[in-house]
Write the structure tokens for this entry.
Amino acid sequence: MNMATQQVAESVSDVDVSGESLGITNGKIGLWTFLLMDAMTFAGFLAGYARLRWTPDSNWPNPFETFGVTGIQLTAFNTFVLICSSVSMVHVLSETIRGDLERARKWMVVTIVGGLIFLGIQGFEWTHLILEKWPYLVGGGAVDYNLNFAGTFLSLTGFHGAHVAIGVMYNIIIYLGLRRGKITQENSSLIELAGLYWHFVDLVWILVFTFVYLI
């Protein structure tokens, strides 16, 4: 009886209770859960946008008339910048795994700059739309534009912009960790988590750009 108990105890001690069985850490599980819930939130925004747009007699404006060709081209460039920052994030992780932390830091700077450029262009676009296209949005008075379009546009792009801002701050923290030697080859999973979030932000923006600017 004692021998059987000892064997059971040894078997239990061999079980990986660190949360990394099958290569899945608790951090990954938590982040994937968050991203799944966040994806449903974005899906709700996009579904609401589609419902309002394709309602009969919605008088939905043509995106080309609202943003203009130049505005859409600027946003297309902004989308390209965000995609490039997602690619640079892949390099951050790969260089960290290889142990080349100096190159990893350089790639992280590229990622952070890409996020800041995206936010800067989006801020410029918002300023232009609110002051010139939708001047009564904050000042009151007669409304000569589609309120549903303005509301859903600002909600979608603003919600996504908040995610980008959070991602930039997260990446700055990762960069400081790399610079101070607190993030190394041994705990590169921290960068992997940041990369998952950043790729999610990139993917969502591609959907938003397609729905709002192109269709």
